[in-house]
Amino acid sequence: MVSRKKKTKTCDKSSPKEDRISQLPDPLICHILYHLSTKDSVRTSVLSTQWRNHWRSVPALDLDSATFSNKHAFVSFAERFFKSHSESWIHKLRLHIYGEFDLTSWIDAVTRRSIQHPYIDYFVRGKIPLSIYTCETLLHLRLCYSFLPDSEVVSLPCLKIMHLEYVRFPNESTFEKLISGSPVLEDLTIIRTSNVVKEHVVVQLSSGTLKRMYIDMDDSSEVVIDAPLLQCLRTKIASKKNFQIINLGFPAKLDIDLQSLRGHLRLTHPTKVIRDILTDISRVKDLVITSDIWKEFFLYSKLRPMRKFHNLSSLNARFAICHLEMLPTLLESCTKLESLILSSIRDKEKREPNVMFAAVPRCLVSSLKVVELKLSIPRCEGEIMKLVRYLLKNSKFLEKLSLNVCHREKAKCEYLTELVAMRRCSSSCEVIVL
After folding, report:
1. Which range of residues forms the domain containing residue 434?
2. How far apart are CA 62 and CA 43, in angstroms?
3. Which of 59, 58, 64, 65 lies closest to 44 in space, CA to CA?
4. 39 within a domain of the structure (yes/no)
5. Beta-bridge partners for 203
6. What is the CATH number of the domain that holds 401?
7. Whole-model pTM?
8. Residue 385 within any structural domain of the chain
9. CA 276 to CA 414: how far, in whole Å?
10. Where is the composition biased (Basic and acidic residues) (predicted)?
């Protein structure tokens, strides 16, 4: 009997690869193109005859005037787009505009067709049309380098996210009406927004729905915040504190930084500013601070006692290794701390830290559960391991300690060997070396 050999299927390497993307339904292809810039979306038209017109059905316009050969080409393309979508919704409008352009007809066109996500980056003294104030379906508004005209009526009933960057307005009431006219606003970013008339501006910001806010203002502006539902406040401080929270509640999270000019801080009254910041910190549960804030805390603690942060449960801090000696004082102030994240930065002073891990703060024996250390300073390995030993030895309820060290594998093995031999106060603590 002659046995039959089982036939095996082989791939024909010479056959063209199957184009599975083109087999997708047209609505799904349009959804994919929606997340590309208009320029990249148009480029797909050369793939095949099937792709030639897909980009025309995408309900979004994302253009940069600098990518066109001249102003006429940019305006002509945009006009054709708005004309082709005269009967359909436009979900997203993003314009990066360099030069003098009249946006009135374009903004009017998209607001009449219920635009939801306009991004208008206008890099000249462009005036935004009044129709933007009454777009009933607008969800996300981002304006950069624009001028906001005054308006008697502001009605943005669906707006949840607002980003204003280097935006100018004629008076404080224009900005205040923009906020009060957005009854469901949840996320607000204000970067270098200013009054075109007054040098010093105090803006009264009142919102019953605002949850997240980022403030980066210059010294001439101050924001008074009345937002009882505010959960997270991120801010940068130049020479003085630029915000004041007057509502009874306080955001659960505070992320604070100091601006520097050519590497130097510009605080006019550092003691007062730091004292005010410490007062705010005493009211939050989650704190993120940069190395500049850490350094100012360190200098402040040498002059007067640090206040207690009884509400603080999470601390995320960046610091120069020479200021590591501040850590015991800071931990002593955080009486109920549960999570500690420490990240080191390049040490410009190149000064050896003088750390005395003697006293045991209350949080180590009563509340600290998670520690994450992102420390990669080879010359200070001894101080780092002293810190790790101190935390493991005294943290009674510690559940996890993560150590991220950017060294070769041999050095990591040495870390592991030393860590295994360390005494742990918490028998359930998991130690991870990354």
Report:
1. 260-434
2. 13
3. 58
4. no
5. 223
6. 3.80.10
7. 0.80
8. yes
9. 44
10. 9-20
Q: Is residue 159 domain-resident? A: no
Tokens of 366: 């009563």
Q: What residues contact 364, with CB distance under 8 A and at least 6 apart?
A: 331, 391, 394, 395, 396
Q: Which two tokens stand for residue 223?
A: 């924001």
- Which residues are paired to 370 by β-bridges? 339, 400
Query: Which comes out higher in pLDDT, residue 19 or 104?
Result: 104
- Looking up tokens 């001439």 gives 220
Question: Which of 111-120, 151-160, 412-421 is the least confident region?
Answer: 111-120
Give the residue from 255, 387, 385, 375 showing the smallest Cα distance to 331. Answer: 387
Confidence of residue 377 (pLDDT cuts 50, 70, 90): low
* Within a domain: 432: yes
Residue 167 has pLDDT above 80, yes or no: yes
Q: How far apart are CA 327 and CA 332, in angstroms?
A: 8
Structural domain count of the chain: 1
What is the distance between the terminal CA atoms of the chain, rounded to a whole angstrom? Answer: 63
Q: How many helices (H) and strands (E) does the chain have?
A: 11, 22
Q: Residue 6, class by beta-carbon neighbours within 10 Å (0-12 exposed, 13-18 middle, 19+ buried)?
A: exposed
What's the one-letter identity of residue 235? T
pLDDT for residue 65 is more than 90: no
Backbone Cα Rg of the chain: 28
Q: What pLDDT, on a 0 to 100 scale, did the predictor assign at position 407?
A: 61
- pLDDT of residue 95 exceeding 90: no
Cβ neighbours, 10 Å, residue 275: 14
- The answer to whether 259 and 237 are in contact (CB under 8 A) is yes
> Could you give the strand order of the β-sheet that contains 243-245, starting from the edge strand earlier in sequence?
201-206, 221-226, 243-245
CB 26 within 8 A of CB 54: yes
Closest to 22 in 3D by CA, of 47, 2, 41:
47
- Whether the Cβ atoms of residue 393 and residue 368 lie closer than 8 Å to each other: no
pLDDT averaged over every residue in the chain: 82
